[in-house]
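Researcher: I need the complex structure. Ligand is zinc ion. Inputs:
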Amino acid sequence: MTSAWSDADARAATARYAAAGIGEDLALRTYSARLLGADPTLVLHGGGNTSVKTRAIDLFGEAIDVLHVKGSGWDLATIEPAGHPAVRLAPLLRLRRLDRLTDEDMVGALRQNLLDSGAPNPSVETLLHAFIPARFIDHTHAEAVLALANQPDSPRLIEALYGARVACVPYVMPGFALARLAADIHDADPNVEGLILLNHGVFSFGATARESYERMIALVQVAEDHIAGSRRVAAPSPKARVSPTELAACLPILRGALARAATDRWPTHWVLETRAGPRALAVADDSRLADWAARGVATPDHVIRTKRLPLVLSSPGGDLAAWRGGVDDAVVAYASAYKASFARNLARFPGGKTALDPLPRLVAIPGIGLVAAGRTAREAAVAADIAQSWAATLLAAEAVGRFTPLGEADTFDMEYWSLEQAKLGKAPRRALEGRIVAVTGGAGAIGAATLAAFAAEGAEVVALDLPEALAAIEGAAAIACDVTDPGQVEAAFASLCRRFGGVDIVVSNAGAATTGMIAEIGAAALRASFDLNLFAHQAVAQAAVGVFRAQGMGGALLFNASKQALNPGPDFGAYGAAKAALIALMRQYALEHGADGVRANAINADRVRSGLLTPMMIAARARARGVAEDAYMTGNLLGQEVTAADVAQAFVFAARMMNTTGAILTVDGGAVAAMVR
Ligand code: ZN
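Model: Output:
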């Protein structure tokens, strides 16, 4: 680990922030906090915290001592000066005289002493930063240090490696008690460069931002050198790697098992993210996996993202039907064990605690790696990052000695600590969170509007379209796929399963109109229309139903039919015949897969501006009918132009109509001739 400090960058940051009225201390604090945040082996996703003690001018124009300390909700990687709100220092220092202070009173005292009452809550570790007199203080959960701080003999090991440079602090939950203990240990040895908190992390101190930061780097380097020089973990016997095709088949099974193990109160739809890097596989493939997975988290802050223990599954090993039963049993057993652990620990809280869902957030699978589960793709990615960090810490700790993290009771206290849960935020859950939605023709007008409408409901959305069309897509995940090629459709769904774990809602939307009078149209043109407007829908539906059945969670198949299917217009026979057959196809899926919980419905939209109805076509058709273009577009019972967003909303509604299947929903502003009868 080398220092990333650059005097030129530090000066540039100081100048940039000075222009916004920010003083040098806070500017350099922000600069070096970001250096820490940029290294995922030091801190991850809101972990760690930093501070500087300086002076500020209050409302009376008087200079007062303040502590700028990281505010809740900020991430060191992207922190700005506002992410280190100022707290009056003198009242915080007085708190040290108290024998005890409840969490509520501590948070209240911190908020009361903010200079800006609108600032975020200062870090739960603020009092530790206040009680230790160093001007700059940096705190990380560095993997290498955690490997040393999670050992049966951590104090002896740390003393042997660091001598008088650091002091050890026994594990105490963050808050007032830890702040007092750490400050007392520091005061007994005021020349230490930092503190190593057992089972938790490392603090460094400095008179300047650079000194504190570079001491952090140096302390981590000592740990890294020791790990590098220690005996290696025996290389795991290489396990048969699960092929990409098998992985795509395995993840929907796991996703379904999570849904089946959820009771009424718990979320059923999870997004999965798989990590199969060298460390994830080194842990998942090791014969000691079951033992390792029963130990705990590398630092207790991680428990809210990953729970204390990962679920361990067997390797799928070719027989997916047998594996499926094992996965269901293992998830149910995990949930029971979690509930039992909750009940055991609840006894210590006379006021009670509200149980969180009992489902795993991490799953270790030999031959696959580490799979994270989240309510959103973002949550899954955070849990997956932390899983990799856990694997790195565990392997390093095992290289040095024995990975011995915090036990069940202390980890429970952290998992169920209100101040920790507050970090997850209280944003209301959205209706389609956890749902994975694929939209074919995703780059077109209706496709893009549909992706946006599902994303607004909290779903993860993926566009399938031709590679050249996808170049224009922003903000949605995309898979290149020519839907008229069944092989490409299969591959696209496999890719979807590897990326997210499965699929719940498929909007089969890609289509194009071939024009010409039916008696004159060439056979090739007619076949091409059927390839895209019927057979491609069949390939998509087939692949979707394959995933739906593997998950066993039902699913929604939504087809973009057309007015042509019900109310043919001249010159659109090749298109209309295929679309009429598409409605028959939809009904057949509704009939044959209702028992699988699969709902198949079609949207019948008309006169929507899109690649199919271009400005030129609108002009031509309006001319042919002798009306103005606007009148043509609003020529329906409601007298309103139908937009791509209207069609998108209809797809969202259809996906949410849990007891509707085999239906055609019309979105055309009202046209008697096209009414479904
Ligand atoms: Zn910490």
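Model: Summary of the prediction. The domain at 7-228 is CATH 3.40.225.10 (L-fuculose-1-phosphate Aldolase).
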